[in-house]
Amino acid sequence: MPIAPAPTPWAFPACSSWDPDDDLVALGADLEPGTLVTAYGLGLFPMPVTLDGEEHLGWFSPVERGVLPLDGLRVSRSLRRSARDFEIRIDTAFDEVVGACGSPDRADGWITPDFRHAYGRLHRLGWAHSVEAWRDGRLAGGLYGVSVGGLFAGESMFHRERDASKVALLALVELLRDEYADRRLLDVQWQTPHLASLGVVRRPRADYLAALGRSLDVPLPDPFRVDDR
């Protein structure tokens, strides 16, 4: 099991009070491990947000949540062929994956040094994980996210070689398709056109929260367990 962090001193708003038309649920709190684990278990995730010219820590629960059904990933023949060219590793280069996802060269970059530090701490406690695609001893692409019970909350992915991030996603889906697959939840926050092309669907917030509640007491997938690393 992951190492339990110190409890958060913050109280998030009850979901019954969330604005049904607004993805943003709350502002403030911190990025301590206990706060993050609590938030993900409630269906929230953090991102920086600027309001009236000031930067805040925002907590989001999209009204329409992006979810990838484990039987819904669209895998082309060319992607299957590409997958043979990469070696998949789990949690061997977490900091490098997060750093690549947070590269300042990315136009939509939001992964600040504070976020990199926070998720690095979560990783060392066994709550955050990376799925990596390697070729010829070089990290070619990958993704990272937070795993709480049967939830895997995907945060970001990157590639340095064609198809490398998709190969990592394919590997993650195959990892999650175990005997608990019907209760696992692969969350990608929002559905974008790119993610929709891979099979990501939108789920109403209430449906997502219900599925989350069913997933939290599911064991972690074997490769993510601290005692297996």
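Above is the first protein from milestone M3; the second protein from the same milestone is given next.
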Amino acid sequence: MDNKSNRTKLIKKEAKRLGFLSCGISKAAFLEEEAPRLEKWLNHSMNGKMQYMENHFDKRLDPTKLVEGSKSVISLLLNYFPSEVQKFDSFKLSKYAYGTDYHFVIKDKLKSLLNFIQDEIGEVHGRAFVDSAPVLDKAWAAKSGLGWIGKHSNLLTQQVGSFYFIAELIIDLDLEYDSVTTDHCGTCTACIDACPTQAITEPYVVDGSKCISYLTIELKENIPSEFKGKMDDWMFGCDVCQDVCPWNRFSKIHNEPLFNPHPELLSITKKDWEEITEATFKKVFKKSAVKRTKFEGLKRNIKFLNS
């Protein structure tokens, strides 16, 4: 198996078999266009208290500094759009957190894909990434032709919208590279107009320190009082900019059983959330990404929404 085209087809076919929505490949090289954008974003403190965003600036922009000898970045999308959502009278969770923590689900699939590449092609070295290292996931996915970065700064595709996770394999193998797709946001400003905290300060720029996802998950201190009454009942994450996006009319229901919610989750009411015990929290969110905010963090968010 020494033909670049055949290798590429083989990898994409296996990615599909493993359940990935799509697979795109780009050359592992310095992200020239992203460098000034990231620098400006950091200089304006739009990362809030996410100090880690300031670390490993070079590695964030150059995968060859992250994975020695790397030649290709394989970007993969995994759908998480649910078949049903929470009851209307509930504090809200971002849809991505309904089921099993995506880090575990995707890591297993990535390991399987890397093992497959090694078995079929030979000695290939690389690393798997699921938003837990200095990798600009959305930039690589866009560079790999999987979609364009929308005005809300999420990756968008015409076929299935934006409710999917992005992951990468960075490997030391030459492959055929995909070309960038075009932007189809046009004159639409639905996401900008709908953002409850005006976090989208201009098209394609999100002030992370104002984003509800940041305030309810990343921020460990008290939520600033200026956001009182502006959180739209979101207690963990926020989907507003995706929910209003016209392209998400084309979202398709996922087929990953591990992303199905805990049986009790969708029927929990506001009153139930207000009275939630640590035992219930541990039961409902046993393997969930919600564990990241911890019981006390979720209680803080609910208390803030009620204040």
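Note on the second protein: The domain at 4-84+94-171 is CATH 3.40.109 (NADH Oxidase).
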